[in-house]
Amino acid sequence: MSALLWLLVPLSTGIAASVWAWGTGRRTPGPPDIDTWQDLDRYQQLRAVMSGTAHR
User: Binning pLDDT at 50, 70 and 90, where does residue 31 land?
Assistant: First the structure.
C-alpha cells in the first residue's frame, strides 16, 4: 500500500501543475520571438553595464 502512495505523489503533482497552467492561461505557448538580434544587443549592453566596461 505504501508503494501506491508514492505513485500518488507524482500524479497529484502533475494534476496540480495542469490545473495551475490552465488557470493562469498558459494553454498555448506564445508567439515566437521574432526580433532576436535586438534582444541580443540589449543583453550585451546589459552585460557591459553590469561589468562596468560601458563608456558613455
Answer: low
What is the distance between the terminal CA atoms of the chain, rounded to a whole angstrom? 68
Contact 45, 54 (CB under 8 A): yes
The pTM score is 0.42
Rounded to whole angstroms, the Cα distance separating 56 from 35 reads: 25
- Give the integer Cα–Cα distance in Å for 6 and 31: 38
CA angle 48, 52, 56 (to 5 degrees): 75
Q: Give the separation between CA 2 and CA 30, rounded to whole angstroms.
A: 41
